[in-house]
Amino acid sequence: MKGDHAQPLLSVVVPVFNERESIAPLVAEIDTTFAAIGRPCEAIFVDDGSRDGSWERIVASVAERRWLKAIRFLGNQGQTAAMAAGMAAARGELIAFLDGDLQNDPHDLLAMIEPIQEGRADVVCGWRAHRQDNRVTRTLPSRLANRLINRALDLRLHDIGCTLKVFRRAYVEHMILVGEMHRFIPAFAQAQGARIAEVVVNHRARRFGESKYGFGRVGKVLLDLVTVKMLNSYGASPAYFFGRIAGLFALLGSGTFVLVAYRVLILHHREATPAVFLMLLMFITALIALMSGLLAEIIVRVLYQAGGRAPYTIAEQIGFEAPQRAAAG
Length: 329
Hints:
Strand content: 5-15%
Number of helices: 9
Radius of gyration: 25 Å
Strand order of the largest sheet: 3-2-1-4-6-5-7
CATH topology of the largest domain: Spore Coat Polysaccharide Biosynthesis Protein SpsA, Chain A
Shape: elongated
Number of strands: 7
CATH architecture of the largest domain: Alpha-Beta Complex
Helix content: 40-55%
Structural class: alpha/beta
Number of domains: 2
C-alpha cells in the first residue's frame, strides 16, 4: 500500500491495452477481492501504450485507492513486457497476473492463493474449463497449443494460455521475460522446482472492445517455445545441446565416410560422387556445432560469474543477521 512499508501478501499485475471501459469495473472487483482476503494487497496496472484514454481512467482510480499503482509505457511493448514491468515493481509475497478485459474474475484469486498459503503448491494456474470465446479462432487453437507446449515442456496443464496465475515470489522475481514468453512462466518455475497446481476459474464473455490476440502470434509463440525448451533443458550447460548436434553430424559423416571408402577400396569406383561432398559437409557441421557449444558454455560461465547470478533458486534463508533476498538463475 502507498505509504505502508509492510510487505503486501499479494501483488496483482494487470496489463492494459485499450481497455478504457473495463478499468472502473475491474478496479471495483479487485477492491472487493482485497477486502475479502483481509490482508494488505496491491495491484499494479501497466498501461501498454493505450490510445483510447485508458491511462486517464487508471490515474483517476489511483487517486482514489491506496492499494493501486500504475505504470505507463511510452508505446506498445506487448503483454510480456507489461507483465515483466509489473512483476519488477511488485512487493507482494505472492505475485498474480490478471487480464485487464474483465474476462478473468478477480474473485477467483481467493481460491488460488489457498494452495500456496497452505504449502501445497508454489504456482497456481487458472483453468478456464468453460471458455466464453469463439471456438474456431480462440478455443481450438488454444487447445492445440496446450498439447504442444505440455508435451515439449513436460507440463500437465489444461489451460496454459490463461493469464490468471499466482506465483510464490521466489520463483518469478528474477525471471527475465522477452518475446511472448509470459505464457511459459510456469515452465520456468517448474524448472526451478516449483510445485504447480490448477484451479478451475470463472471465464466471462468480453463486455467491451475486442480481443487483441490473433493468429499472428502463433509464429512468435512457436519460436519462444523452442527458446524456452533450450533454456530449461540446457540453459546452464549449452555445450550438451550443441554436443548432441555435433555427435549426430559426426555419426552421419562417419557413415558417409564408410560408404565412400567401400565404394573406392572394395568396388574400385573412383569417379566423382556427391557422397564425398556430403561427408565433408557433415564433418564441418559437426565441428561448427562443437565450437558453438564451447562458445555458448563460455558465455554462460561469464554471465554467472561477472553478473553475480547463480544457476539455482533459494526460496528461504534463516540464521542471518539481516534478511537475505532470494537468488535465482
